[in-house]
Amino acid sequence: MSSKASPAELAGRARQLYLDLLLRGVPGVVDAVVRGANGVAKQKADPATAFKRQNIALDLVRPAPVWERALAEALRAEPNAPLVMRTMDSVADALADAEGGEPDFDLVGDAAIDTQILASRLALSLNDRAAWELSDLSAR
């Protein structure tokens, strides 16, 4: 007979499983980025654009192992905290981060997640009610 796990324990196990799956996928993501850049570089374009694409593809290959290590280390750094990574504004920012800059991660608290879930449920409830009233009025 097994005892019921607390929600905190279940959340911890779920986060650990999620992080394990993310860590397994890191090499594939980095390879996909490099392959995608190479694919775009091979597409036909005017000479100036083709030159820029080829340079970017070549510049992405060099720091790929650094990205892979940095991403894996960042994921392992705090296994019980969800991470939200900022979006990169440009390839130059991504290259600067991969070459030694620290990634910018923010911790998201449980209260913030609970608030977002409640707000989402409220919005869905209001949407359902409005749709029901609209269909009722349309039927009349």
Provide a concise account of the structure shown:
With 140 residues, the protein is mainly alpha-helical.
| Proportion of beta-strand residues | under 5%
Multimeric state: single chain
Q: Rg to the nearest angstrom?
A: 22 Å
Q: Which runs of at least 5 residues are low in confidence (pLDDT < 50)?
A: 81-91
- Judged by helices, strands and strand pairing, the structural class is mainly alpha
The tally of helices reads 5
Strand order across the largest sheet: 1-2
Task: Count every beta strand, where a strand is a DSSP E run of 2 or more residues.
Answer: 2
Element-level helix/strand string: HHHEHEH
User: What is the straight-line distance between the termini?
Assistant: 57 Å
**Average pLDDT, to the nearest integer?**
77
Largest sheet: 2 strands, antiparallel
Helix proportion: over 70%
The outline comes out as: flat
Secondary-structure map:
Elements: H1 7-42, H2 47-61, H3 64-77, E1 83-85, H4 91-98, E2 105-107, H5 110-139
Antiparallel strand pairs: 1-2
Helix pairs in contact: 1-2, 1-3
Detailed description of the structure:
This protein has helices at 7-42, 47-61, 64-77, 91-98, 110-139; strands at residues 83-85, 105-107. It has 140 residues and is mainly α. 74% of the residues lie in helices and 4% in strands. α1 crosses α2 (47-61) and α1 packs antiparallel against α3 (64-77).
Structural descriptors:
two-stranded antiparallel ribbon, 140 residues, 74% helix
